[in-house]
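Sample intake sheet
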Amino acid sequence: MIGRSDGSDNGHNTERLDDWIRRRLAAMIDSAGLSYEQLATKTNQPYSRIKRLIGGEAQTIDASLACAIAIACDRAPHELYDNSITFRQGRTGVPSIDKMLVAVYNDTSATGIEALQSWATDDYRVLCTAYNASMPLQDMLVDVEPPFYYGDDAASYKGLTLKNEVNMNEIAAKQTGTTKSLTLVDVDVLHDALLWVQYNVSEFYADRHGPNAQRHLIDLVSLEHPISRYRANGRLKPRIRRRFWKELRSGNYDATQFATDWVGYTRNKNI
């Protein structure tokens, strides 16, 4: 039996290495907020194979599958074997908000926003500094005053309603023949009215293996009510009212700097 020490008893209490890896995999998956079905899509592996690995039905650990799962969870494979790294559960400390974030930012639909439709307010708007009147979607754009201040410009921004955002994404998916797979990477609470969300979007072509492209993005998300209200009332369903997104174009990005050019917010600013 291959064993490892947990470091608390001078090596006398050991655990089977494969059981330890399974436990680490389960914690990693929980921290990423992914279901086995989502992992199957992201790894291009059968659901049953993933379930057997994590559940212990497989007699041996498939290292290639374990590494694929780590990558799908947006983790480096070596983190799986590093006992100094812990995988925390929960993102904001508010269970209802964490549930919403996991659902919205691990979407695997063709449009990438199917789940969002269940968590958006009636007056939801999506904003981006790239939206302007010269774009093909100019007839769909509406003026939106964001709930946060961007740089030195207090003017309203151009945004899309949920209906038009869905329509645009459906058209794009049909034209390119792609489906999307989102992976939630990280979340910070900037203040009681604003969330900072980092996520990746992988785009898959039906006639190709593996993702054709991967994009790194961040959203500034404003909810229908202050975060403190959801913390006080666990039965109140959080809904997204404003979503301000930005794509990160650098391949070697520094996740600590993503939000610094937005209204002076940094990831270290908490409630």
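Comment: Strands lie at 3-5, 14-16, 120-127, 142-144, 157-161, 178-191, 194-205, 213-223, 240-248. The chain has two domains: 3-81, 95-257.
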